[in-house]
Amino acid sequence: MRSKGIFLLLLLGALTAYYVYLPIPDDIEERWKLMVTDSFFRSLSHLADFSEMLGLKDYMGVMMFITFVEGVVPVSDERVHVTEEAFDGVEVLVYEPGQQGGDGELRRAVVYLHGGGWCLGSSRMGPYDLLARQMVIELSAVVVSVEYRLAPEHHFPVPFEDVYRVVKHFLQGQVLAQYHVDPDRVAVSGDSAGGNLAAAVAQQLPQDPGQRVALKAQALLYPVLQPLDLNTPSYQQNQHMPILPKTLMVRFWSEYFTSDKSLFRAMMSNSHNSLESAGLLKFVNWSALLPESFRRPYEYRAPVAESLDPSRTIASIVDPRASPLLVPDSRLRPLPKAYILTCEYDVLRDDGAMYATRLRRAGVEVTHEHYSGGFHGALMFTLWPTDFEIGHRMKDNYIRWLKQNL
Ligand SMILES: *[C@@H]1O[C@H](CO)[C@@H](O)[C@H](O)[C@H]1NC(C)=O
Fold first, then answer.
1. Which one in 33, 59, 167, 357 has a CA-CA gap of 20 to 30 Å to 205?
2. Residue 400 falls inside a structural domain
3. Is the pLDDT confidence value at 13 over 80?
4. Which atom of ligand 1 lies nearest, measured to the CA of 287?
5. Helix axes 31-53, 2-20, angle to 10 degrees
6. Which residues does UniProt assign to the signal peptide (predicted)?
7. Which residue segment(s) compose the domain that 156 sits in?
8. Residue 11 confidence class, pLDDT cut points 50, 70, 90
């Protein structure tokens, strides 16, 4: 009896150690908390793989559990007024300062796009709700949090188009007036895949002949910006890091475009480039675009490019609405000033760092904040029990930048 108990305890211990323990670099704070947090994500991911294998539910369908666990019903209080609206048919949450009108002064506004690899997440998650409220209170801003449709049910370009429709709708004179928003003080912002959508929207607007109101700023939090080279130093260094291992990021990329698994496999081996995309590799050439300190001891090798069977060529991977790093400099020049946050222990670090270089070279004002002990998604880990000091610091610095630049 007793030995059985001990055996079970040992087994449980071994399993926990297997799941929880992860070699995390020493300079990441609160390592154990991060390991435990990540073990939850990894177990869920294994469960999702298993479920897909058995044909029960597809991988992303199971991963959506995270979104439900963190789900909230955003409610108004004395300081923040929340309404659910449809902007040109797309669901949004509008957060406004509680005291209506007040001094009659026009407010600034942020259109916020949640992360989750275009496949997961919702504006109705605790951390996004909290962030929106904080922005309303500290910036006296109107925050529009967009509930865009998700892949794999809605592949590219649906998520982008939903977001773009919302931004176009909001930037109309009479709509801005209705929310007491100053047309000269509107920003677009988002984290991770939301940062990708934000960057893409900022690029698309100046191309739009009918567009009169321009964005004042874009704030990109550890954004995803290109799928051509999935073997940058940050992908190599951080392929097994918490929250966003390389396999998951590649899975998000491939599912954004297609449910055909052959793209996932090709992307995992960085052999998904066609002769067409090869011409754009110069825009993601990390050996030319990363500052010396970001290159680390990695040798640049351009991804191989083959003439793929046309049925395997996915044209969308070179579409700038999916891959904002792939535009020529002339399309970067008209862009609003940018805030880019990157984390050392994040596969996406070099995407953000390369975009910072390219924007600066094109003459755009850029604030690049790099967190040397940062991990992907940290800014959303601000709620107990998965709250991290670094997440709070990131949030404070991000909101401070908006305060000074919007
Ligand atoms: C990348 O940049 C290096 C210079 O840093 C250059 O030698 C190489 O040809 C470039 N490769 C591509 C594909 O642009």
1. 357
2. yes
3. no
4. 5
5. 100
6. 1-17
7. 66-227+319-405
8. confident
